[in-house]
Model the fold of this input.
Amino acid sequence: MTTESTSLDRPALIGFAPIFPVADLQRAVEHYAQLGFEVTPYADGAEYAFAVRDGVQLHLSHTPDHDPARGAACVYLYVHDAAALADEWRQAGVGGRTGPSRDTEYGLREAVHVDPDNNMIKFGSRMDG
Done:
């Protein structure tokens, strides 16, 4: 744990890792590996895993009583090319649901991926960049 301070003389935030509840950890590990994440189970892999892609980290937490219809998690990722990522994630063999990208009135191109546990990754890139 760091005690680094920002210019406002308070502890600095240095990272962010949303935790996705999953009913079947092995299925989730395989799913996120298909999405291009490097997935590492914690210890024996029975309860928790870390998924990392391009320095972005998601945590997968085995939650035996997780009901995807009643609750899940959501995260927004800023990416370089939302259309290309949506195309990649819609490739044959990648589970879950990935919608096509769309341009927004607020200057972002966005798309959404929903995993088999109903966790949502919404992602976007600047349209002018």
Summary: The radius of gyration is 16 Å. DSSP finds two helices and nine strands in the chain. The first helix runs from residue 25 to 34. Helices lie at 25-34, 82-89.
